[in-house]
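Revision sheet: structure tokens.
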Amino acid sequence: IIAIGMDDSSIQIYNVRVDEVKTKLKGHSKRITGLAFSNVFNVLVSSGADSQLCIWNTNGWEKQTSKQLQIPVGHVAAPFADTHVQFHQDQTHLLAVHETQIAVYEAPKLESPKQWFPLETSGLITSATYSCDSNSIFVGFEDASVGILTGSTLRLRCRISSTAYLPNNPNLRVHPLVIAAHPSEVDQFALGLSDGGVCIIEPLESERKWGTPPPQENGAEPSNNAPVAPSTTDQAQR
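Predicted:
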């Protein structure tokens, strides 16, 4: 069974074996931007450009619940801002990534989410993902910096400045568009950059890990920059 998110806001449930669309799910008002299955609860979670999350039961494909992302006060989300979803390794906690926030919900009711909002100086969130052990969340921003949050509490563990992995050229407005976590190295991840480059990032051997959880600062980000050992491949020039 494959779930296919469509531009017309529907979700097609496709059976590969019989080459047939078994059903179409309708619950969003704008295009589908994210899908994730949980084999613990037998549900499909969908997210859309309408900033909405929907839970579908995979037995009868009925909608169990839906939640609207809480956009922070004073911020107007883009009318077609993508929302992406990913299940934690435990298949219970759900990571929702929106340009304005990182949120973690507990399936299947999606109640009382933990939320993290970046400072305005960072710009919008461009991408985020769990590390392979789900203990960290790697987050990319428009200003080309990268934040590393604790997966359970959403505390900012450290922040990687753009100067740690990009050439110091103010005329190049390069930033990460997508982040992928290494499947077995918990502190290593790849950045897909807006100039076509790919950068593999990990901590220095002397550091071994990404910082330590800072004290609570009412949502404010600490200013420490983490040392980093990047390896880059500039696809645009090769």
